Amino acid sequence: MHDLARRLGLRTNPLIFFWSAGLMLLILALLLMFPVPIGAAFTAGREWITFNLGWFFVIGVTAWLVFLVWAAFSRYGNLKLGAEGDKPEFTNLSWFAMLFAGGIGTVLMFWGVAEPISHFTSPPFEGVEPYSGQAAQDAMAFSMYHLSLHTWAIFTLPGLAFGFFIYRYKLPMRVSSVFYPLLGQKIHGPIGRTIDIFAVLGTLFGLAVSVGLGTSQISAGISAMTGLADSTELRVGVVLIIALVATWSVASGLDRGIKRLSNINILAAIGLMLFVLFVGETVFLLRQMIESVGIYATQIIPLSFWNDALSTYTEADGWGWQAGWTVFYWAWTVTWAPYMGVFLARISRGRTVREFVVGVLVAPAAFTVVWFVIFGWSAMAADGIGGEGGPISAAVAESVPLAMFAFFEQFPLSTVVSGIAIIIVMLFLITSADSASLVVDMLCTGKGEMSPLRQRVFWALSLGGLAAALLLLGGDTAIEALQEVITVIGLPIFILVCGMLVALLVGFRREVPPRTAVVSGHLREQPTEVDAPSREVVSGDAPEGSGDPADAPDEPAVAQVGPPADPPEPPSDVRGPGKPPPSE
Prior knowledge:
- It holds the Pfam family BCCT.
- By secondary structure, the chain is mainly alpha-helical.
- The chain has 21 helices and four strands.
- The radius of gyration is 24 Å and the shape is globular.
């Protein structure tokens, strides 16, 4: 594989790159050749997972959120993502703006109206009348639960793990590096490679599902504005345009222009939100801004543990409402974990654990609440709270991606606003695909710098091809097909992120070991902070630009040079340059 990588001019880990690319192309070919049996297999897999492991997803994400809050306010909160002398690269304002850009743009555009209206029309709880005031409050509670703190906990945990182990231990920028406290040097062997290959594939599928959902919304908007049929062909055509533009962006090296375009896009989305606030029922929305925070605060704990257990006896399929919503959300979101983990770690170096957790959880979650209050309550009010439903719920019943455009029809300049919304969604998808090609390639190379152009172009085209294949697999029921695929793919990634929590616990304790004190004749452990064991990278890489992966080991040897957490070894076994530390 090294010889093949050299002939192709690649600078990557050949094993991870070729296995990931080969499996992805194999899955892509199978999806196109055998859509019916593969679709049936994903359907069966989703049914088994939601029935038997839905509870695991629900309690897992809640446990991650509790762990993050504990970590931020424990004695480990002062540890830095990086060396002790590292300073944050970005101001707080710039950092918060990038947090918004990284993870929630397309999601909020798609679900901002669709989810509240869906729950408003079909209440999750038994005995609640559709379109009632109680249905509206429950719809808002579920929407904020699904896309606020819990969603960002799924992003924050891997981001914290990446930043902590990669920058403090100077390990390769790969998912396997997070498991160094558990696996030691095995992260550089078959186990580590397997973890990295699964992470790359999961990330590709997660991003492809996001592109597929965004594409469904764009095609629905085009259909509503032009009268064209909202067909599979139109969706695939939109995906191909997005993939080609993203590839052109990667190939042209327009990184600065794309970042500027991304910032403009964020401002446009905020402008759209303010338009709805001030043109719509402003006073009602401001009152709901306060009330909805209270609804969220009172409902977050019961919803965090509710997993629809009685559906075993009350539903024919045995797994109930939550399988199509909460379990799908967590399975889908967790496939973004490697992508968002790398992104968050890269922009957060030099911040403390406490700064990172509070910033990444609170700022985006607060914006999400504001977004749902403005779009969700406006949509439910326009549809008729206490009535029999209206045009927005009728549109959602016909096609979920139509929700945003049916909502804009209730406002002046609806065609113009809908056109702007289509452009915003498309630009979010293009910039996400552009960034994703870089991050996926980093997960293969293990390095933070730019790789050869051909590698990033390959991943950009692969992402588009995979999204198109998933849409073809789903046909007219693309949304349901995407839900089935991502629930199955998300399970192994979910298990990996659970392992990240354990690795962080072990890493924290090694950085801040307990101190033993004698109290009343008994030994008692007391916490004490010590400087983290500093680690330096012993250079062994090939000269820059050599292009020969065989001459450039992608895992630099790591030598421990600071005060070790374990008892010191005898002087006769001092580690020299190039000799790695023992496996933990």
